[in-house]
Structure formats: structure tokens, C-alpha cells
Amino acid sequence: MRILALDTATEACSVALLTDDGVIGRWREVGRRHAEEILGMVDATLAEAGLSLGSLDAIAASVGPGSFTGVRICVSVAQGLAFGAGLPVVAITTLEALSLAAVRGGADRVLACLDARMGEVYWGCFRAHPDLGLVAEGDLTVGRVEAVSVPFTGAYQGIGRGFAAYPALAQRTGLVLPAGAGEALPDARQMADLGAIRLRAGHALDPADLKPTYLRDKVAQTEAERAAGKMTES
Prior knowledge:
CATH class of the largest domain: Alpha Beta
Distance between the termini: 58 Å
Oligomer: single chain
CATH superfamily of the largest domain: ATPase, nucleotide binding domain
Order of helices and strands: EEEHEHEHEEEEEHHHH
Shape: globular
Structural class: alpha/beta
Strand order of the largest sheet: 3-2-1-4-5
């Protein structure tokens, strides 16, 4: 199976290619230069493997949560590549990718957390699954740090840059936090892994059906509020 995975939803920009020979990829923090970097990273990764888009089975795309602009870039690029090559897509969230990294490292239950700015975090809880890689324990959420909790008793491992942004979070929740886990950002390598699992399970999508997972709709609300304000003033 050959899966190309993309992620531009956070400060990191990453591309990975999963084949029967293993996984290759590129990952780097690019600030706000995702749109300038992502296609070059795709080309370089495919060239390293000696493969074309048309020879792949699917594209796994990060759908957020994360930066509003970054999520839109990833969804749009994945759709464009998939339409052009006639490929299905698989949706993967940033919190799932983070959690799978922890699961592959030996964690049984994981709380993944990313900085959502404005004093809030994106977070979700997951547990390891022998066939699916992991499964969610509850909905993905955005909210104040004080609202973060785990749904079940037992040892959870924390992962994600939300812990670096709010250092008191790990102590307040009593989470295990291995060295470096609090600085972690999503990586397309885990997205490729989950993409292959979900493609085998029949969870492929038509590219037109790929939708962002924003959780916070404040950006859209602000546009609507501005339009409403103009109508009120006129």
C-alpha cells in the first residue's frame, strides 16, 4: 500500500510517504510559510521514492484542529492532488497523529493537547487499539485549560505543545509526560500510518467530501459579525 500524508495545521509542515518498504518523509517548522513549502516537500518525497502521484493508493490529509489558515491549506492541497491523480483521501486529525506517536511509543491511554491561543487548548483523549491503532475516548474539544480532564481513571500519557504553552496543565491533570512530549507537534508519518489502517477498513473519502475540523468557529463568526455590523450601520 502506498499512502501520501500531508499536514500544515500547526507550526509544523510535514509530508510522509508510506510504502511496503517503510516510511520516508520531511518535517520542519515553517512559521506561516506552509503554502510556499508544502508542494516542494511533496515533490521531494515522491522523487526520493521514485514514485508518481498516480501510482499511489490514497492521500491522508490533516483536517485539524489547528491554525485556521493552515487547515485550509492542507485540505485544499490534498483535494487538488487527489482530484488530479484520481485518488481517494483519508481524513486524520492532528490530535490523532500526536496520540498515535505516543501509542507507538508504548502508551495505552493518551491525552493530546495543542495550543489554541486565547488561553485555550485543543484536546482529546485516545486509547490504543490492536487493529485501529487508536480509538477516541470522547469528542475532540477546544476550551480553557481548566476544563481539560480525562474520562477514565488510570495512567494517561500527555503529548502535544499545549503542555509547553500551559506548563501547569500536566501537574493539574496528573498526566505522565515523557521528555520532549510537551513540545511535540503532529507529524505526517503517523498520519500515513493511520491513513493506511483506515483505507483498509473502507474509510476512504471522495476528495470533495474532505472537510476541515476547526472546533472553534470564531473566524467565521467574526466575518458574519462584521457583515451584520455593516447592515446595522447602513
